[in-house]
Task: structure prediction
Amino acid sequence: MSLASTSFNVPATADYAHDWALVDVETSGLMARRDRVLSVAVVTIGQDGEQTGEFSTLLNPGCDPGPVEVHGLTTERLRGAPTFDQVAGRIGAMLQDRVLVAHNAQFDYDFLAHEFARARMWLPVSQRLCTLALNRQVDPPTDNMKLGTLAAHYGVPQQHAHDALDDTRVLAGILRASLREAARLDLPLPLVTCPPRAESRFTPQPPKTPCAYRNPGRLTPGGPLRQGMKIAITGETAHARAELVGRAVAAGLNMMASVSRHTSVLVTNEPTSASAKARRAESEGVPVIDEHTFLQLLADVRTGTAHEATAAVSAGIAPVAATVRERATEPESTTVPDPDMPVPDVSVPDLCVPDAPVLPPPSPGVSVPAPRQVGDSAHTLGTPLTGHRVLVLGGVHADAVAARTRVVELGGSAAINLSASVTEVVLLTGGPQDRRMNRVLALELPVHDAHWLIAPTAAGRVTATVRAREPKVMPRGGVIDLPMPHGTASPEWYVTASWAPQTGCEIDVVAFLLDEDEQVTSDEEFTFYGAPESPAGTVRLLTGGPAEQTIAVDLASLPPATRKVVVAAAIDGATTFGTVGAVQIGAAPGSSGAPIARATLDAATTERTMLLAEIYRRGPLWRLRTVGQGYDQGLDSLARGYGVDISD
Result:
């Protein structure tokens, strides 16, 4: 089968014309730093849409092939196949000076990067395009974003699922159709820059053994060590450092690689040392003991308090999720990481049209309003926009916020970008001058002024097609239970944040794993651009484009201490979220799952960091709460508030 026969026909504009290298890999598992590539296929396509090359091969990974029931590649089939280093040169030549394209591109990119690193070679890719992220922008009316589902939607034939070469050929058809839709909607391509990465990034440290006990606080003079205490060591020691750490961990202590205000004690034989740990211990008032004293105390470590999750598991209570239920109960208090941080004024301004409903501001001292039942119509005016997706253009920030808030109150979903699912457009002051208006008119979308939001008529869908199941529209502060199919392990959940493309700043999405005390138990439980994957692979930061990032959380393998995962966003520089505008979040099971819930958060004004969402335990359930709380301080202050050691 030649791709030339499929009439690839890419849009004939510079924004969409690139030299492409379409890639698919089949792997022995899901962790790129641990698992191996079993087969790889590469198809190259020129800017004119013509195929210029094709290569595929099985690979001998030198290890167990993993889930044979998924990819069908047994040890017998792979025996005699070349190793990756034997074909790396040919693959590299096909990728050179081309945009790498894959479905869930970060997965394929990371596996290739690790394989090239093992072969002592650089992966010659400077840009990648994810067709999954591209279709999240296009937003076709499909039940999910799986390769087979999109292939059926776009009319691309699929013969052998999970065959690398056939999947790559299917990917070509999906790319063609997706580029046409992007051009029709005038969407910028979500190209991701892929700078060279140091080889050490491909060999992370092995995961730290989670401590099963809560931190009881600092060591008191003459007092005993207690299980859960956070211990740091600095300087030369008489015993091997590994021996000291091993004995401490076996005793139930939490060994830390750095010192923070939550450290229980610093062990050092050089109390006047100028090391960073010693300086930090002195500034934070952390107790200091020598190695001999530490060994004496290790002989009688007192029993600590187990983390609640650990106690629940030992009692036979499994943290499984239930079916989606709309919540109308009183919420737990939302995390405020540092009591010294000022809580900004986040009241939603009124919509500047006659007789617009006035939204009550939050009570004094309450940073996040109490959640309403998802889809609730507390305003008693009905939900005429249920199932509709409305794009607001123009207006000063306060008016745009109020308009989108009104859309949600009326049962609709507030869009932040033009997509195939947009059903109506509301124009505020300056809206007709928005660059997207030409495309809106060409698509013949219904266009209204702000007065329409007072009592909108149920406008019919003109160009958008309804999904079988639309995602829940969550208000700020809304809460839902995360569903899980009965009898299966808890799925990996993806919380995706997206915003309008920016030119003057970069936005970074981060995640914190917090215990019962709303603190990280170690610095490794802070996932950000500098550490995009936790040591155990439980939490990962995925980049789908310059205006989209995702936090993936494997709930089943979270450390026992973890009670909550906080997803936040931070702006690098002086730009604020008031300038960026709305941030949309969506929650989906798996990388290709359809979002079960969606929220638009845009009440921020001068803030540079924002809490977007929380995934937290409540009894045997996991829940998702939308937050939308902002802070004027930067990411470093937010991280310190959660107990992360940030060097000045």
In short: Residues 349 and 531 are 37 Å apart (CA to CA). The chain has 15 helices and 26 strands. Residues 164-185 form the longest helix (22 residues). The first strand starts at residue 20 and ends at 27.
